[in-house]
């Protein structure tokens, strides 16, 4: 039963905003007040450059990966892994430390998927890279990879809890990208 303590810890880890912390440490403006206003790697790149964006991306990815990977390493059930992954993901979207205003969740979801299964995480990354190479639109790449992630989870992991977690993350990623979707439909992205 003590392993269920991983859930609130995962949420708290997810609540650490890499973008805000990295921007403060590097003397950059608050990402919530610059560019798109999103505290994520893509927005940080717009005004802070590649180095700040790469560190932000790594931080967001790790906060999804570490709690799930550790729980997986300790042999916890798929049910618990799914809940821990969703807790870290929701912490990123709705961080308790930053008035529940977080990022869109792409990097953190990749970390969670990598924690479930390296193959699953790399399938997401590979899809993102392929779509980006063709279309050069980050949000489109993330949306396509996200839509396919439950399918990948079914074939690569085969557990209903992991498929469910991938589906929940997909729904939230689509919701958080609704303005991007509208711009894509209008040909403005």
Q: In angstroms, what is the radius of gyration? A: 16 Å
The main sheet comes to: none
- Count of separate DSSP helical elements: 9
Number of DSSP strand runs: 0
What is the total number of structural domains?
Answer: 1
Question: How widely separated are the two ends?
Answer: 47 Å
Structural class: mainly alpha
Mean pLDDT: 95
One letter per element, helices H and strands E, the order comes to HHHHHHHHH
DSSP helix fraction: over 70%
What percentage of amino acids are in beta strands?
under 5%
Q: Tell me, briefly, the overall form.
A: globular
Summarize the structure in words.
The protein has 189 residues and is mainly α. The protein has one domain (2-185). It is built from 9 helices and no strands. The protein has helices at residues 6-14, 18-25, 41-73, 78-93, 106-116, 118-135, 138-156, 160-176, 178-185. Helix 1 (6-14) packs antiparallel against helix 3, helix 2 crosses helix 3 and helix 4 (78-93) runs parallel beside helix 8. The longest helix has 33 residues, at 41-73. 47% of the residues are buried.
Question: Which keywords apply here?
Answer:
mainly alpha, 189 residues, 0% strand
Secondary-structure map:
Elements: H1 6-14, H2 18-25, H3 41-73, H4 78-93, H5 106-116, H6 118-135, H7 138-156, H8 160-176, H9 178-185
Helix pairs in contact: 1-3, 1-4, 2-3, 3-4, 3-5, 4-5, 4-8, 5-6, 5-8, 6-7, 7-8
What's the short version?
With 189 residues, the chain is mostly helical.
């Amino acid at each position: 039963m003590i392993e269920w303590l991983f859930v609130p810890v995962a949420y708290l880890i997810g609540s650490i905003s890499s973008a805000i912390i990295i921007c403060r440490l590097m003397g950059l403006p608050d990402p919530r007040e610059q560019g798109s206003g999103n505290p994520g790697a893509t927005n940080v790149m717009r005004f802070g450059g590649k180095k700040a964006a790469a560190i932000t991306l790594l931080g967001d990815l790790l906060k999804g990966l570490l709690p799930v990977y550790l729980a997986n390493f300790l042999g916890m059930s798929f049910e618990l892994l799914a809940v821990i992954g969703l807790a870290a993901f929701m912490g990123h979207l709705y961080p308790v430390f930053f008035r529940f205003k977080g990022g869109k969740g792409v990097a953190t979801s990749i970390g969670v998927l990598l924690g479930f299964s390296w193959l699953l995480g790399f399938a997401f990354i590979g899809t993102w890279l392929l779509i980006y190479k063709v279309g050069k639109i980050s949000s489109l790449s993330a949306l396509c990879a996200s839509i396919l992630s439950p399918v990948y989870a079914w074939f690569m992991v085969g557990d209903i809890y992991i498929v469910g977690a991938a589906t929940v993350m997909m729904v939230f990623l689509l919701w958080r990208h609704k303005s991007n979707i509208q711009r894509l439909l209008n040909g403005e992205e």
